[in-house]
Amino acid sequence: MILLQSPSRYLLQILTNRLQNLDKGVELDCQFVEFNDVRYHIQASVKNSNVVLLSVSLPTPPPETEFVGGLPPGAIEAIKAAYGTMAQILDPPKDGYNLTLKLNLSKLPPDEEHKHALLVKVASIRQVVLGAPLQVVLKRLLSRTAAPDTNRPVALVHRPMESFFLIPQADKVTVIFPMQFNDSVDTTLATSFLQEFVEARRTAGLNNSPPCLWSPSPPQELNGIPAESLSANAGFVSFGMRLLLLIVILLFLLHLPVFIGAVIFSRHVEGRKLDRTVWSLSTFQAYVSYHVKCSEGFMHTRMRRRVESLIEALDRAKPGSADKQAQIAETRSFKRLSLNDGRRSLNSRR
Amino acid sequence: MDPAASRPAVVIDNGTGYTKMGFAGNVEPSFILPTVVAVNDTFVNQPRSASTKSSNWLTQFNAGVMADLDFYIGEEALAKSKSSSTYSLNYPIMHGQVDNWDAMERFWQQCIFSYLRCDPEDHYFLLTESPLTPPESREYTAEVMFETFNVPGLYIAVQPVLALAAGYTTSKCEMTGVVVDVGDGAAHVVPVADGYVIGSSIKPIPIAGSDITLFIQQLMRERGENVPAEDSFEVARNVKEMHCYTCSDIVKEFNKHDREPLKYIKHWRGTKPKTGAPYSCDIGYERFLGPEVFFNPEIYNSDFTTPLPDIIDRCIQSAPIDTRRALYKNVVLSGGSTMFKDFHRRLQRDLKKIVDTRILASDARLGGEIKSQPVEVNVVSHPIQKYAVWFGGSVLASTPEFFTACHTKAEYEEYGASICRTNPVFKGMF
To answer: Transmembrane region positions (chain A) (predicted)?
Structure first.
């Protein structure tokens, strides 16, 4: 519904099309932009139809975030782990981009299901690259090894010149988003949405989701961060990522001989869950802004309906309007005859 | 500088049948989707009894809110409406005009967020409208775009001008021409001089792509082809898109078909949607009779009998006299329903015939004293005809001047929706 999907629909469409028409091998060169200023440039030539060049540019990082060679830390390992031999990182990347991948379509796995899964993985490249540091931190939580220096906030870029913060601890990770909106209406809507969001967390059905807090001032965990990078006009949202499910899995691991089937199964779920968590956290701001736009559209629909009903009521209240309408209806019910029609009817009568 | 101006603009061409959308600067639109929204309206028509308790009301209200978010667009919408009965199809655009603004707003929302996946606050937008759009509809568009989506800038372009701009790059720098825009739901002949639309000479044609489909459907039904009734419109549309062509002479074409049926008669295979049983049917004369409707409309409809070449000729004759030669020289086709094979050849031949007859008549009247210069007639077709309007928009929106021509959010907030009321391309001449 109004959730943002992690694979880019257009990228997936291009790749599957390309794969289906490999022998035709048309020239391909297109650029597109996604939310949070992630840009893509995809190129392929007629000569070497198996090779597709995919360049990605990431949002400009603010000074407090750590970037290694134009990429978030851990990104290169994540790319290698996700794509294997199919993708090759070109160094240096194309001018103006942070990363250029050389995709070799002939190295895709032969069976359809795996092939599609890998293409979807390529299409969700922004999750792999931008979510890499987050993934590292969450994995550390899973293996319960504390980060070298705990309690120091880690800044991760999610929008151009804006970042969100992670505070990794041994048993939990706190994620803090400074929420920033350009429009005053948007800010109001977003604020009430976020308050509602926190409220909704308390209902019985969402017991397993991470606890969530909203505050108009920066929480004390962020004390060491310069004030200019904490500009927020819709407050701060923080999640305590304790991940109850992970603890359950650890309990399972202790009973290894008994629950072996269940462990593999739950691990599998957990792996996919981790991906989903990474995606929803790294696009939280986009999600909120999408939601705000939807609510505005929803309100407009309601307003339009209201105006229509009011106009109807006004029309009904106009004195004499009913008579007039009846008159119009009467005159229209007769077919206006022209001279020719009259003659024709005369002829037919004869 | 505005950071949004450094990103490519989003170009969305909403047609009656299909919507073309993508980013400026590309050659092809990213997505071509049927313009349709599948809405879950099971909650709308529910009777509201007065005796319901407050908690019950709340659940009903929540369900209503969820139903408001529960909708699909494009191919997904068509698939959903086929598989379940809770969704009903809603076509937001009828005959080139926006008919249902609620559905249109939802359609745009999905286009932007789930297909193009861009943040509307980051991009300038170029939307298109048909040449006969009322100013109120333009204001409404601006309202939706600026209020709901918060776009930084908006330009509402006129489709035929964009179709001309598409030819601008492929051949020569010419912004004068007649655009024959035949879409799925609306068709116009629009003369454009130096980029300005000659508003008084626009000629609408009451025959468009969907009429051709209906005609083919009717022909197949009358011949008793074995097509399931619920599928027949889709089959007719597919036949139109895949097998139809324009013939040069209808009588000769009938003879050709009768002499060599094996060569000309095609087959259509499908499965019945309800039972899943396979069926097949023949496609015969409708292959050339479909497009023939444009040249001999009387075979389809007795109310409108002016052939397309006549309309184009009348349109040019009603334009200012100093533009006519240039207009004859550049007749540009656009829209999916001009994609039939050899459509431009037939049109050029017929139009040339009309023009030559007129010149011969005037020469005869003058008694051969003054010889008039021959009039050059040229019907231009290019391979991207189907999305020529979108391509023109893409070309236009990638120029640096585009961003200065846009209506910005600041202007909207200062003056209101009336900034989009008039379109400058109509201001050249009246």
So the answer is: 243-266
